[in-house]
Each structure stands twice: as C-alpha cells, then as structure tokens.
Amino acid sequence: KAGVTQTPRYLIKTRGQQVTLSCSPISGHRSVSWYQQTPGQGLQFLFEYFSETQRNKGNFPGRFSGRQFSNSRSEMNVSTLELGDSALYLCASSPSGGDSPLHFGNGTRLTVT
Amino acid sequence: AQSVTQPDIHITVSEGASLELRCNYSYGATPYLFWYVQSPGQGLQLLLKYFSGDTLVQGIKGFEAEFKRSQSSFNLRKPSVHWSDAAEYFCAVLESGGYNKLIFGAGTRLAVHP
User: Residue B66: phi, psi to the nearest 5?
Assistant: First the structure.
C-alpha cells in the first residue's frame, strides 16, 4: 500500500503570498490531519477532516484553512504568509479516528522570505 | 489540559549500549500513548502505541515501552542501540475526544557514537 503522499516537498514563498499544500492519504483512510512543525513550537495540531467535514481545529489564526475532497485527499491553504509560517507541514491519515494510529507523510517544507 | 514532557532534549549513547528515553504525560484517565521517530528531512514513523492491557508494549526496530500509571510515564527502551537509530524521538498522547489530535512532547534527539 502506498503511504501518505504530500506535494510539493519544498516551497519558497514571499511574505503576503498565499500557498496551498496537498495531501493524499493511504487508500481507505478517511481521516486526514495536519500538523505544523517548527524548531520553536515543536509539533502542533492544525486541523482534522473526516468525510469532508472538519471535526477538530487547533489554535491557529484564520489564515490557516483546509478542506477534504470526496476521495479523502486534502489540501491546506495559508493566506497572507508571514515569516513565522516557515515550517514543516505534516499530513497524517488514519482509517477513522480514536484508537487508529496516525500515519504521517514526509511533509512539505515551506520557507517564507 | 493534557500535556507531554520529554525531559531530555539530547541524548548520546555508544553503539551497542542500552537506551531509555523518558516521557511523562498528564491525563486523568487511561491515555492513548504513542512513540514516533523522525529521521532528518522525513515524516514521523510510528514505533509503538499503548491503548490498554499489557503495560509493556513491543514495537518495531526492537523498541519497547512500559506504561506506568503510578508515575504517569511511558518510557521507550532498546537493549542495544544501532547507529541507524540516530534520529529524533517524539512521545505523544491522543487528546481525549480530540479526533486524531495528538499532543506531542518536545522530542529527544538521539546521537549514536560508533
């Protein structure tokens, strides 16, 4: 089975721009979660989607948004980029939730200049 | 609020030596606990998980962890470390009712000397 696929692997953007990151979950997995990883704040939960519905959201500003499509693929969008948004963005999938472990992709490294 | 503490930021061990990485959590009920490993430039790989039952959990790559409720700990162990184990290790707890919201510790970076 193919793992979680995130595209692109690397992105360089300028302050004020917006960016869209993509995540394809493991086949059959209906839950997709997003995490931000930075040296200062560590790993922080952004949001989780299941069957195209956002079930949970972390403590991030409204500039961070996401969506999930009917095939479970997910995208996250960051508008009006700030330097502090530079991070590794990780996507994880699981069959449903609760006691199903998360399977992580290799992430998208976003650099904001 | 639930939290996870990994007291050791960096640990260095010699190849072949034993390893123990510490993890403490705060949560009233029985937690769902995980250990993940991250190699440079990579995502997180699940090493093992604890949901209930036997408090000694076996994982991949020869790792094991022991859940101790009395100490609120979930320490990761390996009897003999290999150079390829050099990576960053994260302990995490599933937030109650959180729909796949994991709360991570700050991580422990492991270096292995030949």
Answer: -120, 125
